Amino acid sequence: MYINSPGGSVTAGLSIYDCMQYIVPEVSTLVLGQAASMGSLLLAGGAPGKRYCLPHSSVMLHQPSGGHYGTAADIAIHAKEILRVRTQLNRIYERHLTPTNRDKKMTVEDIEKMMERDYFLSAEEALELGVVDEILASRKKKPEEGDKDKEGT
Predict the structure, then answer these.
(1) Domain total for the chain?
(2) Which GO terms describe its biological process (predicted)?
(3) Residue 28 is part of which domain span?
(4) Can you name the residues that pair with 135 across neighbouring β-strands?
């Protein structure tokens, strides 16, 4: 799945995420440009070992936002819902982030603290945090025709 996204609807993003997890074939993710907000969750939700970015890609994680106006009771209902969604998203990130510089996985509390504000990552930082598994800097060359050593035969 190629991703170049500033983010978008949480419900639309979660429906894509659910499909990625449901289908039998593993989903490889590759960010070209940016994977922000919901785009970062889809990037992280790719199959382990198959989450990639290009060298100048950027990733941005943050908590969900929303706005509502109306009666105090309606505002309270929407506030409760956005907090529920935030918890749901944080648990998804917890499941998929695999930091390279830590002995253990990140906790929901670590993720909540990290995402108090917009959290921008370079390709290298996304790799360290475990949003991606590899930065694709150059294409792997195909073996030359007739070069049996490279073909393994």
Answers:
(1) 1
(2) protein quality control for misfolded or incompletely synthesized proteins
(3) 2-138
(4) 53
In this prediction, residue 153 carries a pLDDT of: 45
How does pLDDT run across 44-69, given as a tens digit for each residue? Answer: 999 999 999 999 999 999 999 887 88
The CATH number linked to 6 is: 3.90.226.10
Euclidean distance between CA atoms 145 and 153, whole angstroms = 12
- The single residue of 5, 37, 40, 57 carrying the catalytic annotation is 37
According to the model, what pLDDT value does residue 11 have? 95
Identify whether 146 is part of a domain. no
Where the chain has pLDDT below 50, the residues are 153
Has 37 been annotated as catalytic?
yes
Q: Which of 5, 40, 57, 62 is catalytic?
A: 62
Q: Has this prediction a pTM greater than 0.90?
A: no
The answer as to whether 147 is a domain residue is no
Which two structure tokens, joined as six digits, stand for 2? 């190629």
Residue 98 forms part of a structural domain: yes
Per the annotation, the verdict on 65 as an active-site residue is no
